[in-house]
Predict the structure of Probable membrane transporter protein.
Amino acid sequence: MPHLDFLLVGGLAALTGAIVQSSVGLGVGLVATPIVTMLFPSLMPGAILVIALVLPLATLAQEIRHVELRGLGWAFGGRLAGTPFGVWLVAAVPDRVLGVLVGTVVLAALAVTAGSRDVPRNRRTLTAAGVVSGTTGTASGIGGPPMALLYQRESGPRVRATLALYFAGGTLLSLTVLGAAGHLPVRQVVAGLALLPFVLAGFLAAGPLRRYLDAGRLRLALLIVVGASAVGLIVRNLV
């Protein structure tokens, strides 16, 4: 059974991240990963991967009819291709340099897409976003922003449902690979399961915020979350 301090601190982080992701489409990993990594490193990455799998499933249960399946195959293919490169970066590049590099890439993508009137979504851009997502997700735990930027002008339900399916598939892949390689200790899975009540509470609490953002405010909120994740990653590795 996880210690009380993990349930209090990790639970608060999971609750906050779940509220953000349930409203915007991403966020549980961006909020919870730095806190759990810093204070409870032995429970990473399994604890966060468990909640990162369950929360998208809750979103899909509510909004699955809004999923845009067209093109997700290209994104998943890109993620598979980008994952080995992320593994190579972890081995070849110092952690702090890697964090700054990933944060800078995300900010550059944000700057380019935020000023565009339309971000094309085709097999090339979806594959590229998948490659970057697989690379940065494997290297730093932040893999959502590249895909989120492609869907920034879609409706709230479509953004949340499509990203949920993408995250669920990617997280399941990560858990499977870690488990097969013997890098998924039972204590990490148990810790993640212990955080699920906080995650589900965050999902339920986000209902009013979802409705508020869906009234034409989602894109700005999504861009703020993506930008904050990149800046936070850079600052965390510079300080």
